[in-house]
Automatic annotation (TrEMBL):
<keyword id="KW-0472">Membrane</keyword>
<keyword id="KW-1133">Transmembrane helix</keyword>
<dbReference type="InterPro" id="IPR011624">
    <property type="entry name" value="Metal-dep_PHydrolase_7TM_extra"/>
</dbReference>
<dbReference type="Pfam" id="PF07698">
    <property type="entry name" value="7TM-7TMR_HD"/>
</dbReference>
<keyword id="KW-0812">Transmembrane</keyword>
<feature type="transmembrane region" description="Helical">
    <location>
        <begin position="26"/>
        <end position="43"/>
    </location>
</feature>
<feature type="transmembrane region" description="Helical">
    <location>
        <begin position="431"/>
        <end position="453"/>
    </location>
</feature>
<feature type="transmembrane region" description="Helical">
    <location>
        <begin position="337"/>
        <end position="356"/>
    </location>
</feature>
<feature type="transmembrane region" description="Helical">
    <location>
        <begin position="460"/>
        <end position="485"/>
    </location>
</feature>
<feature type="transmembrane region" description="Helical">
    <location>
        <begin position="362"/>
        <end position="380"/>
    </location>
</feature>
<dbReference type="InterPro" id="IPR006674">
    <property type="entry name" value="HD_domain"/>
</dbReference>
<dbReference type="InterPro" id="IPR006675">
    <property type="entry name" value="HDIG_dom"/>
</dbReference>
<feature type="transmembrane region" description="Helical">
    <location>
        <begin position="387"/>
        <end position="411"/>
    </location>
</feature>
<dbReference type="InterPro" id="IPR011621">
    <property type="entry name" value="Metal-dep_PHydrolase_7TM_intra"/>
</dbReference>
<feature type="transmembrane region" description="Helical">
    <location>
        <begin position="304"/>
        <end position="325"/>
    </location>
</feature>
<dbReference type="InterPro" id="IPR003607">
    <property type="entry name" value="HD/PDEase_dom"/>
</dbReference>
<dbReference type="Pfam" id="PF07697">
    <property type="entry name" value="7TMR-HDED"/>
</dbReference>
Length: 728
């Protein structure tokens, strides 16, 4: 970054001086933008509160409320009821642990096998004693030896079948009412096989009622009452609960149901009654009112504070960009223009979104006046400043429109495309052509955006159509509106400079008539300055026009300047102080004349700065000879300035100096011109005349080479034609 430019920017009145009107204006801009955002986004919430907003449950509706827009909302109460019902209808899941079932049956089978076929009483007792550690209390069954072996085997088989039936069905230790399901049903899953069955709660087998199951089973067989009691005793001994509630599986099932659960939507179309007269306000009506408030938007502290916050961020972002890219600091030269265009773009955008936004319709972003604003700013200022403006504006609308990415992309790319398309426009009619190209850019942008965000073919077609028409209308409107801005702001637009470059304007004709030497001098300077500016990327047209008008202050006192003198020099009869005053006055007179002619500020600046604060050497040296160097003030014999502030003004200064100095050269050659011009440029450089224009040494070298190229053509050698008498 150029250090001098950065210092100049930081010393700008908008940045440095808190007491200036510019700082106050900047603060005023901030609050105007914030108020605009608040009014256009919170207007309904602040100023249009409906009477039915205050209804409470149980109130009587006093008048019908008709919807002007469709209203869709979720009935929270109905959704909660639906969800509760769905949760209540989910069957609690119990898992039968098959490993417990298998262990119980194996334990019984081992017992059965151990006592089968033993008839010896002593051996039977020993076996029972050995089984005591495995089957505690089994020793009390010694009376079994008295039973018939076949009958005992039959009773043990009945006991096993009972145990197997109970264990396969599932034996519940207890059944909690909260886990029994609203329908009185349970879902039972076998852990090994994964089989699912559904049971009635009253049919479940509990540790407290398993006897009923055994008795029902035994009723089908010919067992005596004593045998049945024995079988129940054996079954009780071996039974073990194997069916348990699974909270994990039950919760997982609830989560699956919740995933598929859809809310209860209520749809009301335009013209439907939101509230009906003489009806009682219920929870449903309150839900409708709340949904209507949500659609309109509720006023909140966040909604009020947000515009203050992100507008401040935008201003900070702007100043950071201006510091990072000092070439764009020209935005601060006319803050009124930047503010107005930003405010206009923001206001129109918010109004469009307020009145044209329709769900499922053409996106409102394609109606935004981004192209129009970018064209106008690009023509009134320059491309670099327009790019910064577009970048800032795109971020602003992104925030204001609740982080609308479509608005961000359209503002950014439409604005950049517009300023690039009209950059080379030289005639006003070129704006119409530019509008067509902008339409093509916006059509392509709309097509890409609609591909990213799928929409019906009809909406895609109308979106492309609107984007194209927007571009064409922007071209026509810019052609219509630009003269108004030119009249108010008097900027250096290409079209205005083209008009001023006409040498048939009255002031230029008057110069030709009254100061022909100055006219010729100005034309030569224009050729030099235009070539130099073009080669360093500066505004060549502004340099040419500035050269034409830089010496208009000499017209009414032409005889006091050497280029208009023939034989007699008026300064020979004047004091040096008076001569210097006359020479210096042509700048002041030129500025006054330019202001009366309403010339653009850029041209007036060149008139004011084309001598900078350089010394009028001829009269200064003459004064030194007459009075001595100690008695002569250098400031009295220097121009009043200011020094050149732009590259165009600096090049015109160097061209003015080069054109005048090279007139005295005898047989100029390329080498002579290069050395002579570089020495002249370095004099201005060392005197500090070029410190504030932002030019680099490399650019000065390019300017010097451009001057040499033009002057070489001007001073080219010509052949000497023979006299007719000699030929005869």
């Amino acid at each position: 970054m150029n250090k001098n430019i950065r210092i100049n920017f930081l010393e700008h009145t908008l940045v440095k001086d808190n007491s200036t009107m510019n700082r106050k204006i900047l603060i005023m801009y901030y609050f105007i933008i914030v108020l605009t955002i608040l009014i256009l986004t919170q207007f309904d919430k602040i100023f249009l509160r409906e009477s039915f907003y205050n209804y409470k449950e149980g109130d009587i509706v006093t008048e019908d409320v008709i919807l002007e827009k469709p209203l869709t909302f979720i009935n929270q109460e109905a959704t909660e009821k639906k969800m509760k019902l769905a949760m209540d209808l989910i069957l609690p899941i119990y898992v039968v642990k098959d490993d417990i079932s298998n262990r119980v049956l194996k334990s019984f089978d081992d017992f059965h096998m151990s006592i089968s076929g033993i008839e010896n009483e002593e051996e039977f007792s020993k076996i029972l004693e050995s089984m005591e550690s495995t089957y505690p209390g089994i020793q009390y069954l010694q009376h079994l030896r008295t039973l018939d072996t076949a009958r005992l085997s039959l009773m043990l088989s009945g006991a096993r079948d009972s145990i197997e039936t109970i264990m396969q069905t599932g034996l519940f230790s207890h059944l909690n009412e909260s886990r029994s399901g609203a329908t009185g049903l349970l879902e039972v899953i076998h852990s090994d096989l994964g089989e699912k069955t559904t049971q009635m709660v009253e049919n479940t087998i509990l540790i407290d009622n398993w006897q009923d199951t055994v008795r029902d089973y035994l009723s089908y067989y010919d067992y005596s009452q004593g045998e049945a009691k024995f079988i129940e005793m054996i079954v009780y001994y071996f039974l073990e609960p194997n069916c348990f509630f699974s909270s994990e599986l039950t919760d997982l099932k609830k989560q699956e149901v919740l995933k598929t659960m859809t809310p209860v939507w209520i749809y009301l179309d335009t013209g439907d009654k939101l509230l009906i007269k003489d009806t009682v306000i219920t929870s449903l009506e309150l839900a409708k009112i709340n949904a209507f408030l949500d659609m309109k938007g509720r006023i909140s502290i966040n909604a009020i504070a947000a515009p203050f916050f992100y507008t401040l961020l935008i201003f900070i972002f702007l100043f950071v960009l201006l510091i990072a890219f000092p070439g764009t600091a020209g935005l601060l030269e006319n803050p009124n223009l930047i503010f107005f265009l930003s405010w206009f773009h923001l206001t129109v955008t918010l109004l469009l979104f307020r009145f044209l936004s329709v769900p499922g319709g053409v996106p409102v972003v394609f109606f935004m006046p981004t192209a129009l604003v970018s064209i106008i700013l690009s023509l009134l200022r320059n491309r670099r400043e327009t790019i910064i403006f577009v970048l800032i504006q795109s971020v602003l609308v992104f925030f204001v429109l609740n982080f609308n990415s479509q608005a961000l992309y359209f503002t950014l790319f439409s604005g950049l495309g517009s300023c690039l398309v009209v950059e080379g426009a030289e005639k006003r009619i070129d704006l119409i052509k530019g509008g067509v190209f902008i339409a093509l850019v916006q059509i392509l942008l709309a097509l890409l955006m609609m591909i990213i965000i799928p929409a019906p073919l009809k909406i895609v077609f109308f979106s492309i159509l609107v984007a194209g028409i927007n571009g064409i209308i922007s071209g026509f409107l810019s052609l219509t509106v630009l003269p108004l801005f030119e009249h108010i702001l008097n900027p250096c637009t290409t079209f205005r400079l083209q008009e001023l470059s006409d040498l048939n304007t009255p002031i230029i004709k008057r110069m030709l008539a009254l100061a022909p030497g100055t006219y010729s001098h100005s034309i030569n300077i224009a050729n030099l300055a235009e070539t130099g500016c073009r080669n360093i990327g500066a505004n060549a047209l502004l340099a040419r026009v500035g050269s034409y008008y830089h010496d208009i202050g000499k017209i009414d006192q032409a005889k006091y300047f050497s280029e208009n003198q023939k034989e007699y020099n008026k300064h020979d009869d004047m004091k040096t102080t008076l001569s210097v005053a006359v020479i210096k006055s042509h700048v002041k007179i030129g500025i006054e004349t330019a202001k009366k002619m309403n010339l653009p500020k850029g041209v007036i600046d060149i008139i004011a700065q084309h001598h900078g604060t350089s010394v009028i050497e001829y009269f200064y040296q003459q004064a030194v000879k007459e009075k001595g160097v100690e008695n002569v003030s250098l400031e009295d014999y220097s121009h009043n300035g200011p020094r050149p502030q732009t590259k165009e003004a600096a090049v015109v200064m160097l061209a003015d100096m080069a054109e005048a100095a090279t007139r005295s050269m005898v047989k100029p050659t390329v080498n002579k011109l290069e050395k002579f011009l570089w020495d002249l440029i370095m004099v201005r450089f060392k005197d500090g005349e070029l410190n504030e224009c932002g030019m680099t040494l490399q650019e000065l070298e390019v300017v010097k080479s451009s001057f040499v190229h033009v002057l070489t053509g001007h001073y080219h050698n010509r052949i000497e034609y023979p006299d007719r008498a000699e030929r005869n």
